[in-house]
Amino acid sequence: MNADTKIKFVAIDKTLFFPTLKKRVEQYFTENHKSRYANKRMALKTTILLASYVLPFVAIMLLAPDFWISMLLWLLMGGAISGIGMSVMHDANHGAFSKNPAVNKWLGFTICLAGAGVSNWKWQHNVLHHTYTNVANLDEDIKDRGVIKLSPHETVKSFHRFQWVYAFFFYGILTLYWVLLKDFIQYVHFIKSGLNRQTKRQNRQMLAGMIVMKLVYFGIFFALPTLAFNIPFSFILAGFLLMHFFAGLMLTVIFQLAHSVEGTQYPLPNPDGIIEKDWAVHQMETTVNFSPRNKWLSWYIGGLNFQIEHHLFPKICHIHYPGIAPIVKKTAKEFGLNYMEHKTFMKAFMSHIAVLKKFGMPRFNEGIV
User: Fold this and answer.
1) Mean pLDDT for the stretch of residues 140-159
2) Burial, 126: exposed, middle or buried (Cβ in 10 Å; 0-12, 13-18, 19+)?
3) 56-65, 101-110, 143-152: which range is least confident on average?
């Protein structure tokens, strides 16, 4: 299968679950006189996260702190960029931050602060992941890349039995891989697969823009501090790698805890390209919430601990997920659907470890969850 494959969700048994849920969620916003988009608290949060990314870098250049202090500042930047990605960029590129498309567009470009391109992210995340959640060869988030096996439908190699240990190193280099290679690999792949339907001229412009963005990105991080502020290149390189490792680790772990955990399903289409499920039911069966009462965690990760609500309503700003979660849970129960949830972060984390172990065992080569 590839991105151009016509996969459809066709429910054998029709259900009114999603129409009923949509009506109730709409009623929630109407009755409470709330907008679906960001509010003043979200604007403050955006300012805090952006400042936490920019100001430490300014301090590194202007104050030239000693090595270990600078490493702490780089670590703070790594935490900030993952927070920006999960809280600001994510909502904006879903069209959920503001009702003004221009605001969403420009805040969506905050992905460039991590050195990544916005168009590829939208195709990977908004189209493939959100449409074909946990469907092997279509959902890029569980795609087999050889080293880590996140689907029961991929061939197990002998080294996969240790993936529950080494996976976190590869999680940590995710954003660095994205900056250096992933954008260009996806650029070619999405054109060949048919997902990217832009004209040749548009793609040339996209590629040129991506190259310029990355050159500016590396120029700011390496040329500016070393040439203009005489900071040792080794200090900058060490900090840059630390920032990206921390950001990649945070981002990847958070996203894995929603789909690559015990209890989620990994359906495959039948020979006619049909998944015999209602799309909303499919989302319920492939997604798990975690740590719903941890307000600090929810603030930092942009409500991604409420992944069920996000997958069902991606165009609603994440600050509203705690409010609509009880509605989703109640409606799911009425329709006999399992609302999966881990009460704490640690329970979700250990569940992910269990899945890494399970999928890495040779005997699980042909298993289906």
Assistant:
1) 88
2) middle
3) 143-152
User: Residues near 300 by Cβ (< 8 Å), separated by ≥ 6?
Assistant: 83, 86, 87
C-alpha 138/C-alpha 27 separation (Å) is: 34
Q: Is the pLDDT confidence value at 346 over 50?
A: yes
User: What are the pLDDT digits (tens) for 72-105?
Assistant: 999 999 999 999 999 999 999 999 999 999 999 9
Q: Does the structure show a pLDDT above 60 at 35?
A: yes
Side-chain half-sphere CA neighbours of 341 within 13 A: 16
Tokens at 310, concatenated: 């996000």
Residues 319, 221: Cα–Cα separation, whole Å: 32
In this structure, which long-range contacts are made by residues 316-322, counting pairs with CB atoms below 8 Å and at least 24 apart in sequence? 316/25, 316/36, 316/96, 317/36, 317/37, 317/38, 317/39, 317/42, 317/91, 317/96, 317/97, 318/87, 318/90, 318/91, 318/96, 319/38, 319/39, 319/41, 319/42, 320/29, 320/34, 320/36, 322/292, 322/298
**Which two three-digit tokens encode residue 61?**
């250049």
d(CA 37, CA 319): 8
Alpha-helical segments (H) within 141-232: 163-172, 174-177, 183-193, 200-218
DSSP label at 289? E
As separate numbers, helices (DSSP H) first and strands (DSSP E) second, the chain gives 17, 4
